[in-house]
Write a structure and sequence with these properties.
With 186 residues, the chain is mainly alpha-helical. The protein has 6 helices and no strands. The chain has 2 domains: 85 residues, no CATH class; 100 residues, no CATH class. The longest helix has 34 residues. Bound molecules: flavin-adenine dinucleotide.
């Protein structure tokens, strides 16, 4: 893992230029807003760019680094998965990042308490690891996942089967060739 450069090392780096996170985590816009408003306030407070840079780093480096670690942890586990290592995506001990993505986040659409905690994670209102430390909520998400599987609303793995993916791709290609919703302009 790389160290974050101090933001005043060259230019003052902030937002995606400082800590880029994968867009699918939905961390980037929150960080961009927090960094932008914080920097403006610090520049007003200090009136000196070096002091403001140091205060900016002190305020945000730990959270930025934790978010980057969290995002790259999923990259690491996907690489394990793609290398044919067996990973149980329904077991947080096997892969917390994949459990969050495939079990907890989908459960958030069905449960207000989980939805709230996921939103707080995304919007940087909680430390990024708060959700993964909430074992009661994780267990609740797992129960919701099993309920969705039992009622046929989710496939057992939480992921579409290979045949379903090919069928979806074929359907999208067919739709591209002969759009059902389009009207003739003639
Ligand atoms: C497909 C996709 C989906 C995403 N979905 C989400 C999401 O749902 N939720 C979420 O939180 N985040 C999401 N993100 C991430 C989020 O958009 C970024 O993290 C965020 O916009 C970063 O803000 P920023 O200000 O650092 O950079 P940017 O928004 O990239 O702004 C940088 C600006 O600088 C300008 N610029 C660059 N070079 C120069 C130059 N030399 N001179 C002048 N101007 C320059 C660029 O044109 C740009 O306008 C997504 C990203 C992508 C790509």
């Amino acid at each position: 893992m790389r160290d974050l450069p101090p933001p005043h090392a060259r230019n003052l780096e902030q937002r995606d230029a400082w800590i880029h996170t994968n867009g699918t985590f939905a961390f980037g816009a929150s960080l961009a807003l927090i960094h932008g408003f914080s920097l403006a306030a610090l520049l007003d407070d200090y009136g000196d760019t070096v002091a403001a840079s140091e205060a900016f780093e002190a305020a945000h480096a730990a959270d930025a680094q934790q978010r980057w670690i969290s995002v790259t942890a999923e990259d690491r586990d996907r690489a394990r998965w793609w290398s044919a290592e067996t990973i149980d995506t329904l077991d947080p001990a096997s892969s917390m990042p994949l459990f969050l993505r495939f079990v907890v986040y989908p459960a958030a659409t069905r449960d207000p308490a989980i939805c709230r905690q996921v939103a707080r994670r995304i919007d940087a209102l909680d430390p990024v690891d708060a959700l993964e430390g909430d074992t009661i909520l994780l267990e609740r998400a797992r129960r919701i996942h099993h309920m969705l599987v039992a009622s046929g609303q989710l496939p057992p793995s939480g992921l579409p089967e290979r045949a379903e993916l090919f069928a979806a791709i074929a359907a999208a290609e067919a739709e591209d060739r002969h759009p059902t919703g389009s009207r003739s302009t003639r």
